[in-house]
Amino acid sequence: MMPADSYAVGIVWQIDAATVDPVGNWQWLGASDLLVQWIVVDDTAFVRNTGLRTAAHLPDWDRISREPWAKNVILGLAGDTDERRARTNFARLGEISAALVRMPTPLHVTGYYFPVEIDPSWTDAPRLVPVLNELPRPLWVTVYDRANVGGDTLGRWLASWLPADVGVFFQDGCGVNARIPPVARNYLDALSHHLGKDRVRVVAEAFRPAVHGGFRAATADELRAQMSAYSGYSVYLFDGPHYVSDDLARALAPQRAAPPGPSR
């Protein structure tokens, strides 16, 4: 008997120069939503006509818009791969982002994402509020907890300053061995208590530290434990193009990935 299929609402795509053509069968996992981390990063645009430097190779946005795993897109705006630089320059990134939302796209955009990541060690994070208020809704940000302050403390801190109409993607931390899935689930429940469940989604890190440095893809058992622990929440896998191969998707969702039987 086949194991039960695991389920994810969506995948995350962290665009870089080497990954402009995402290909996969993430719909086997149930994914129909795509979170694009950014369309401008390090002053390089992955769309045309921004006034910024354009990447040498651009995604085929028309093709992506037709993919079953990209029926609904949360469009990431302007970011920086260096976290310290992003936090220093968040106001400028906000200005670029506000211009990007006016650009036409073939994607079915259902929300926006401001890719300056938040954690409690960033004491100036509340200064984001005026920038966030200039961006359209639905709007999402990412939150993680490097200091392990706990879900309740994190939730109370966010509730004290984050605009009430901005949603949160919580990075589970499993990919860097910061916590195990049941503990990450406790964070989700605490964040939901303080922010409201409709404002909380989870990014399941689909990678693990590699023996000789860097990262490897999570195994099916590792990722299945995360997806199971977060039942009842919208799960997005980080990230699909880099870490969730067809073989991994098939192992996680053997029934949906199985070829159709012969017609009678």
Q: Your description of this structure?
A:
This protein has 264 residues and is an alpha/beta fold. The chain has one domain (10-257): Alpha-Beta Barrel (TIM Barrel), CATH 3.20.20.80. Helices cover 29% and strands 20% of the residues. It has ten helices and 14 strands. An eight-stranded parallel β-barrel has the order 1-2-6-8-9-10-11-14. Strand 3 (40-41) and strand 4 form a beta hairpin. Helix 5 (151-159) runs parallel beside helix 6, helix 6 runs parallel beside helix 7 and helix 7 crosses helix 9. The radius of gyration is 18 Å and the shape is globular. It starts with 9 loop residues before the first strand and ends in a 7-residue tail after the last helix. The model has no long low-confidence stretch (mean pLDDT 97).
